Give the backbone structure.
Amino acid sequence: MNCGDVDQALIGESAIAHFPLDVQEHLRSCKLCQEIVRALSAPVPSYYSSPATLSQIEQKLVADLEAVRPLMPAGYAVVLGAIFVSFLALAVHRLGAFAITVMSQLQTSAMLGAMAISTGVLIYSLVHQMVPGSLHRVSPRLLPIAILSSLIGVMTVLFQFQHDADYWLRALVCLRAGTPIGFLTAVPFWLVLRRGAIISPTMTGATTGLLSGLVGTSVLEIHCPNLDAWHILVSHLGIAVLCSMAGLTLGRGAERCSADRTQK
Amino acid sequence: MVRYQRADPEAPRALIVALSPALLRFFRSQIAIREQADDLLQETWMRIHRVRHTYRPGEPVLPWVYAIARRVGIDGYRRTRRISSHESAMEVVPEKAAPVEARNTLPAFDTLVAALPEAQREVVTMMKVGGLSLEEVARATSCTVGAVKQKAHRAYERLRKLLETQAAEGWKGRIDELR
């Protein structure tokens, strides 16, 4: 038993009486632990607003009181998924699915599987971000980075790095085709998300941007027959990165506007 | 909360009376926004009212409320920082030095956690002042339970070091140094 175990007990229990016996025994012998436990258990002064302030708040709330229907995250997850699939289907229908005929069965299933999993995880995170106080299994701050890293890993393993003479020209063609799809998809996503309460617009912006960017990436993965790993990483996955960065920037701007609006 | 969503006119009062002291304590525990605690409390209730449809019946209320209050606090802090960066000091009157606390006296909770970085202070305050569990703090701060546990552990390690050196230095000077 050491001081670290006392920290663990402090994290788990707030009352000393509920500490395990060995922790209590350590407490009796360690002065430093006694001090930290005593300091953290000391009563904290209570603060009260004046009744006038509370009454003023109550009046404001009651004046605008209407019944509301609780938000259903599952329904929004379905809507977000439907938007993703609709835009993907429309774009593939318009551009053609040439890559499917060129890729091996393993490449097709692994690539589309990775895209589907990434999309599912992002939608799951987004509907949780719409509801304050949701429990996140994966940190929403790290999620975009984790998904991009996994996709880079999958693409690097599945495709070979080649030297292409028209590399930049082909890259530009794909970027020009996929980026508008990503940005366009972001609009209906945003219309859905604004029905929730976004607590961190920067974080949600980056996640939404990545999700809409993945529509563009998925379209190109199905459409573009170029199987050079450099091309796929830069011109296909690059769209997801671009859209995510744009979402992050817009979210940060929205956060600043929100602080200013509150001030007025 | 469910009654509030159903527009029961008695519900806002019950919620305000039950939750305002905890919210006020939460804002008062954050030094940067302490002065605006009452304004932030009002702003929090207005936001709660606007997004009351996002509360899901059956889910814990406290993390939902604290998540909104935390956002309001961050906005308040940014506003204060922006205003203070635009303001030029007209005249600086040196404050009378506060008396250093007695060598063996334990500092108050606020003084103690003031030495912690923002993220750790927030976690310790929610757990010890708000009475939230690890999972509830994770919900309120949009973190995973593991991340909250790690922050709390680091906070206690830091506080331990702080208490260890307390005998050598006064609290005021030590806290200034750590910040």
Q: What stands out?
A: Residues 165 and 174 of chain B are 8 Å apart (CA to CA). Residues 91-104 of chain B have pLDDT under 50 and may be disordered. Chain B is about 65% helix and 0% strand. Chain B touches chain A through 77 residues (CB under 8 Å).
